[in-house]
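Folding follows sequence. Below is one example:
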Amino acid sequence: MKNGQRLTLLYDAHCVLCRRTVDTLSRLEVGCELIMIPYQEAEISQLPEGLTPEQLQSQLHVIDEQNQVYRGAEAVCRIMSKVRGWRWIAVLYRIPFLRPVADRIYKWIADNRYKLFGRNEDCESGSCQLHLPMDKKEEPESGKR
């Protein structure tokens, strides 16, 4: 474990923005162990008491090693405080008049995320593959178009 710290990020696997964020985080230097789990796969009984599937679906949640729960913009800032080069975002969130603004912006984006960024489903048509980065797609067979 990096620095003895662990954060668990619970995100919406159907949200294109959430999946892109998780993909980006997986490539960044994070100063702690960061476990990223789609809330759809989370074992509710193993999460801090009081978290419901409805709450998990409504916004990002981050849980630290003491089972402290951070939600929404605060969850994003909690993670950013551990990412080299992005810690300034967490500092801005501590400014009293910016916190409510960030919370409102986050809530609006979360409430409209499928309209704004699209929805990933377990798709049988294969069209979801069009949105994956090239390294996640299967290599096309040579000679076929």
Q: What stands out?
A: The mean pLDDT is 83.
